[in-house]
TrEMBL record:
Domain of life (superkingdom): Bacteria
Protein's recorded name: PliI/PliC-like inhibitor of I-type lysozyme
CDD domains the record matches: PliI_like
InterPro entries per UniProt: PliI (IPR031948), PliI_sf (IPR038643)
């Protein structure tokens, strides 16, 4: 028995020594968890033809603005000093994962993938790739890779249109356009399909930028409302809305949006940085809540979410606060 015990003890000692000398199994590259680093997506991006613009080459550029941690504003502009612009698009995109954003173009999902030096644009679904031709003329496409540059797009050549979007609803269309005119910024809203009055509605929005525009039937009368979302220049970036409601398919009436800063129900801790959207017939406004002592760049409160409904006022339709929530 003692001999057997000695053999067992010797075997265990060998195993112990061997196990101590073994190195942990190294994880293969494929097995390692890859933690992607977020890049700064803001800035200007250009196609390969941009470097040859002095030779008369047509080119396309993209300007990206970070609206929040998860939303960016996209402006596609092209050369317009020789002929009409080749590609034009204004849209917002939402973050889907690190450095990748999705926007919906005519109901089709399109992805923008960023790295330190470029952005690549493609349809999320292969069969939807033709949607990238919709916003360009002459058979051109938005798809492809665009190189990031450190300067602004060439101001002597680039299309001066600040914002452009076309919206449709039940046979009624709107062309929303904002353009630099000297020192002024002019917004025009052009309806088509109304039975009586299709006049152009113009607004001087100097000091503001159009971020987006949406269309929907807010009062469930079968006719659309169109809302244009603007943001003031400067650190505050205060949001506002210019909107119109269709009167039984005949004409337009302007919608009144009460200034947020003047509304005691919602203005506590408000310092701008709004975002707007339409959802289920309601206007949704969201902004960060600032606490006392917060800097403009670093609000520490929650986010306030306000839901508005469209009601008939004495002389015009009005957006009225329906609910307020802090998240």
């Amino acid at each position: 028995m003692s001999v057997l015990n000695n053999i067992i003890l010797a075997t265990l000692s060998i195993l112990a020594i061997t196990s101590c000398n073994l190195k942990p199994t190294e994880t293969t590259t494929q097995e390692k968890e890859i933690i992607e680093r977020s890049v700064d997506v803001e800035g200007n991006y250009v196609d390969t033809a941009y470097e040859k613009r002095a030779e008369g080459f047509d080119w396309v550029g993209i300007s990206v603005q970070q609206l929040s941690d998860t939303v960016i504003n996209i402006k596609v502009r092209s050369r317009a000093d020789i002929k009409g612009p080749t590609c034009t698009l204004d849209a917002q995109a939402s973050k889907t994962r690190t450095n990748v954003y999705r926007t919906m173009l005519e109901g089709k999902p399109v992805l923008l993938s960023f790295d330190d030096e470029s952005v690549s644009i493609k349809s999320e679904l292969v069969n939807d790739s033709t949607i990238l031709n919709f916003y360009c003329s002459g058979g051109a496409s938005l798809g492809g890779r665009y190189k990031k540059i450190k300067e602004d797009l060439d101001s002597t050549q680039v299309d001066r249109t600040s914002f452009i979007k076309n919206l449709k609803f039940n046979g009624i269309s709107f062309s929303i356009r904002s353009k630099h005119d000297g020192d002024k910024e002019q917004l025009t809203i052009t309806p088509t399909g109304l039975s009586i009055d299709n006049d152009i509605h113009s607004h001087d929005i100097t000091g503001e930028t159009v971020l987006d525009a949406q269309i929907g039937d807010m009062n469930k009368d079968g006719y659309p409302e169109v809302l244009v979302y603007t943001q003031s220049h400067g650190s505050g970036s205060y949001g506002s809305i210019i909107g119109y409601s269709v009167n039984k398919g005949k004409s337009l009436s302007q919608i009144y949006f009460p200034p947020t800063a003047d509304n005691p129900k919602i203005n506590k801790g408000y310092l701008g940085h709004d975002s707007f959207s339409l959802a289920d017939g309601y206007l949704i406004q969201k902004f960060p809540v600032y606490q006392e002592g917060d800097t403009n760049a670093n609000p520490t409160g929650k986010h306030r979410v306000i839901k508005y409904e469209l009601t008939d006022g004495e002389s015009t339709r009005v957006l009225v606060v329906s609910s307020v929530e802090e998240v």
